[in-house]
Write the structure tokens for this entry.
Amino acid sequence: GAVVSQHPSRVICKSGTSVKIECRSLDFQATTMFWYRQFPKQSLMLMATSNEGSKATYEQGVEKDKFLINHASLTLSTLTVTSAHPEDSSFYICSAAGQLSNQPQHFGDGTRLSIL
Amino acid sequence: GDSVTQMEGPVTLSEEAFLTINCTYTATGYPSLFWYVQYPGEGLQLLLKATKADDKGSNKGFEATYRKETTSFHLEKGSVQVSDSAVYFCALTQGDAGNMLTFGGGTRLMVKP
């Protein structure tokens, strides 16, 4: 089946650090990638949608200057949390979808970000 | 807008018990419906899907039938195992929504030996 690789799986860093999370589709071309944030015992909150070669579309309330998304190729999207603070600590999950509509998204294993 | 409603958890069952997790949806048109499972500390995995009315998705002993008349997609399994303990998410996507998923709130299942 389709595989999405997300890296790193866990990050612990000091406040003020910028953190980059990578999301790769390993065996298909991901025309669309999604970034989610998940708080403990809650559902996924969509942060942004990115299409290859164009700017990401952010959901209401998500700071685009805080969460920089780049989707430079059909197999790679990155999320950079800039100048991270403790309130940014969370579980971040990416997913990827191919060209066909109504196809399921395939998810990465998530990144646990802890800001001290 | 579209929405998905799941029964609140946690659902606690003994091993080999029958499982039902209710899911209902509100959507225009003919969405595709999915169940995803999330094991502790991991991302989501697609469990099963159905793309049109009366379709039955099945995988690993789990089943769900797309019921348009009741706008439901309930997840069932005849005999749960401890390894089924996880959070289950019901979701839908519309054909014109660029694969964007609308999730339910998730239901935590705990299976005790």
Notes: Residues 30 and 85 of chain A are 30 Å apart (CA to CA). The first strand of chain A starts at residue 4 and ends at 7.
